[in-house]
Amino acid sequence: MTVIITYVSHWFSVSVSDRRVTLAASGAVHDDQANKVLLVRTEDAIVTIGYTGSAYVAGIPTDEWLARQIVPSLEPGPPSLSMRRHAIPQRLNEVVARIIVAVRQRSRFDRSFHSVEIGVGGCRDHRGDLWPFFVGINKPKQSSSVSFWAFPERPDRNYGKFYVWVSGGWGQYKRAIFARMMTALEKINPAHDHSPEGVVDVLRDALLDFSNGEQSIGTDMMVVMTTPSRRKVEIWSEGERQEWDDVAGRIASKYSAMVHTISYSPWIIGHQTVAPPMQLVADQQLTLSGYPIHLRGGQSGGKTMFLGMQARTPPP
């Protein structure tokens, strides 16, 4: 069961997620490089959308299915980087509404659509000011009902306050780890320290603690750090050195003595940009509705640079 930890405040938000998919029947590892997060920019917000539960919907990875519900105009077939006019929602409420409607519709007729929990969290514009935002969407196993909740329930002008979501009930199941994480986070006042790096360290350590002794949780992770007060987004993946996919492998083979590591990015959606999960060597930068998005690439021993689509593992 996936662990996604999302932290939201008035000043910044952080999402840290593991990347492992296991088989429900045996618990065996199916994929250690699955993507479970999307970054979405609307006119009034910048959020991450993370999921746990069913890893595939309608024969495609669940993150891709979510992207196609948010952007119905995506072409069929393997996704690719697109910078043309799409019917991308301009307001956060519309993004959330599309996801809720899609989950409800799917749960009514698709018996293979077991359980899914989705968290939408980040910073939202409220009358010219930034406010923390989180909505959770839950479709339990063996039920077609879909519930959702939000926090904070109303705008709160306590600028030092923060909120944390831990997916899959891991916060309740491993209370000692959750308590230790919250104690460390309470020492970081986002109103005084507008830099989220310290929060990243705490969430990273908590995810590794949650994974200890749990076959269903991987130690490779995706980190998305948004600081809208500084108009800054950073994304990177962490974990073991990965093999190259498809074209990247053929390119890298020419520079095998120089290439050391690769990195991955999640879905990135906003304005006229739709970028599916990519693999990259060397840092790259995209601009999303005026937000520079810094993608930390894998390290290279030479001047090798590469940006390409990540090949996705098919369903079992």
Defining traits:
7-stranded mixed beta sheet; 6 helices; globular; single chain; 316 residues; alpha+beta
What does this structure look like?
The chain is globular, with a radius of gyration of 19 Å. It has helices at residues 62-70, 92-109, 170-173, 175-186, 197-211, 246-253, and strands spanning 4-9, 13-18, 21-22, 29-31, 37-42, 45-53, 56-57, 60-61, 116-126, 129-139, 147-151, 162-166, 221-227, 232-238, 263-265, 267-270, 273-275, 278-281, 284-288, 291-295, 306-309. The model has no long low-confidence stretch (mean pLDDT 87). The protein starts with a strand and ends in a 7-residue tail after the last strand. The chain is α+β, with helices and mostly antiparallel strands.
Largest sheet: 7 strands, mixed
Mean pLDDT: 87
**What is the helix content?**
10-25%
Strand content: 25-35%
**Strand order of the biggest β-sheet:** 12-1-2-13-14-20-19
Taking pLDDT < 50 over at least 5 consecutive residues as the criterion, the unreliable ranges are none
Shape: globular
- Put simply, the count of helices is 6
Q: What's the count of strands?
A: 21
Order of helices and strands: EEEEEEEEHHEEEEHHHEEHEEEEEEE
How far do the termini sit from each other? 16 Å
Radius of gyration, taken over Cα atoms and rounded to an integer in Å: 19 Å
Structural class: alpha+beta
